[in-house]
Specification:
Blueprint (H helix, E strand, L loop, with lengths): L7 E16 L2 E4 L9 E2 L2 E5 L30 E6 L3 H4 L16 E2 L4 E2 L2 E6 L4 E6 L2 E3 L5 E3 L3 E6 L7 E3 L1 H5 L7 E3 L7 H9 L3 E2 L4 E2 L7 E3 L1
Parallel strand pairs: 9-14
Antiparallel strand pairs: 1-2, 1-4, 1-5, 1-8, 3-4, 5-12, 6-7, 8-9, 10-11, 13-17, 15-16
Amino acid sequence: MGGNSNVQIRDFRLYLSEFAWITPAGEVNATVPDVTGWQKDGTVLIDLENGTGHCSTSGTTDTNSQIIISAPPADATGLSFSVGLPLAQNKLDNGTSEAPFNITAMYWSWTSGFKFTKLEFTDGTNVINFHLGSRTCTATVNCTEEMKGRVTVSGVDVGKGIQFDLAEWFNGQTYASNTCMGNSVGDATLCGVMRNRMGMNQSTGEANSSNARGFEAR
C-alpha cells in the first residue's frame, strides 16, 4: 500500500445483496434467509469492527463476518453479489426499520440513503475515510447515480470463504490523508479508482464487475 503495510483498520462495514451462484448456464439466484441483526430481505451487513482499539470512536461491540445463503448448485463456478442495497431498501427509514437497516453510522441524512460501504483506515499518520453510497437522489426511491457495485468471485464453494484484500484494492495508489464521500468530496483520481474497484463505473454510477478488485475466495 504505497510502500507502507503498517495499516490499522478503523472501521469496515458494508452491505451485500442480490446474491447469485454462477453456473455454465448463467446466474442462479441464491436464497438468503433472515438472520436477526445481520440478514434481512436478501441483504447482509458485514461488520468487521468491534468498537475497541482503533475502532473505539465509532464502532460497536457486535461483529458479523459471515454470509448465510443457500448451497451452490453442483456446477457452480463462483458467486456474484452487489456491494450496496437495492433502491427500495436504500430508501428505508433507518429510524424505524429493523436491523440491519437501523445503523446510524451506516446512514447519510444528507441524501436520505445508506452508506453501502464504510471503510476507514490509517497508517498512524494519514487517514483515509471511504464512504460509498448512491448520489443525486430524490425523496422517492429514484437515484440517478446508484453507485452500487457488482462483484463476481470465482472458486467459491462449500467450505470456502470470501476474503477482501485491502492491499490489492488500494494497490498503486498514493497513501495520503483523504476523504472519499458520495457527494464527490475528496481527491477525484484517488476516489474514482477506489469506487471503481468496488465493482462499478464511478462516472455513471452503474455496476461493472470487471472493475472489482480485492475480493477473492479463500
